[in-house]
Amino acid sequence: MIKLENVTKRYASNDALNNLSLTIKSGELFVLVGPSGSGKTTLLKMINRLNEPTIGNVTIDSADVKSFDIRHLRQNIGYVLQAGALFPNMTVAQNAAIQLETLGWDRQKRDQRVAELLDRVGLRATLFMNRMPSELSGGEAQRVGIVRALAAEPNIVLMDEPFSALDPISKRQLQDLVIQLHRELATTFVFVTHDMSEAIKLADRLAVIHNGTLQQVGVPNEILAKPANAFVATFFDENDTQNIFLNQVVKAGFGQPSTEVGQVLKGTDTIFDWAAQLKTTPDLVIKVEQTTLRPVDLINYLASLEQEAK
Ligand SMILES: Nc1ncnc2c1ncn2[C@@H]1O[C@H](COP(=O)(O)OP(=O)(O)OP(=O)(O)O)[C@@H](O)[C@H]1O
Ligand SMILES: [Mg+2]
Questions:
Q1: Is the Cβ atom of 42 under 6 angstroms away from ligand 1?
Q2: How far apart are the C-alpha atoms of 65 and 101, rounded to whole Å?
Q3: 162 lines ligand 1 (CB under 6 A)
């Protein structure tokens, strides 16, 4: 469990965080979302002590982070940054094994671990181990960043807007990968984004932050259904939505009150999840909460967006 208690971060001209308290449970995929400058990175860096609170405490499993040996602390915390965080003069394998090398793993064991993880994130190890970062696409580079963060089997993985520079398709693929990896590993993920739709898609729970203060914490459905204040409501509406959620389709009035049971999907699944299912079963009927949706509803919904845009 990661706990921030009454944390304030004060700079000469402003407070980056203002008396913020937050608990992240062990093993959850926790998302921190807010606009640029709201304090997300400041908060994230307090967990691995790249940043220290001016006032307040940060604890991991009840121990103050200040009480840990800093090297030991960081070895237990993986860190994935925005694009461009690989060393350009090192191969994929060397980049991915940096932490393992510090830990004293021998070359053969390092290569074995990195190869296994590269395969797991969808990069064929035999093809990618010896490539240089300049020979990777943005999405591939971020996959290597994820491998590097996971290599030493950390208890916590911090991700700071790791997909914000990617095209929509790569972004969706990597979001799915994060969900899948989180499901497979018993690891706490703390994921930072300014994109509310990304937050809704990924999060077990999410926290909305604005001007260094916490606006709302909850599960995605709760926040979608009951935004705590005007900021949360407009932040969601104004956000560029790369993902459209099934409960938005329902809210827009499409579908019928559920009479028959179709394939059950969640309100926080996206229309892309739906489309993927239709690809294999074109006449699929789905049930979202109390509503039945048919393929024609998807077409009508998309047509209504097009009309709105005109
Ligand atoms: N070293 C610093 N000195 C002074 N002010 C700082 C410093 N670091 C951050 N800030 C300020 O603190 C606030 C929060 O910054 P932070 O980087 O945490 O925001 P963020 O939510 O991560 O934004 P973004 O989405 O743009 O990455 C901003 O107003 C920023 O200008
Ligand atoms: Mg930031």
A1: yes
A2: 24
A3: no
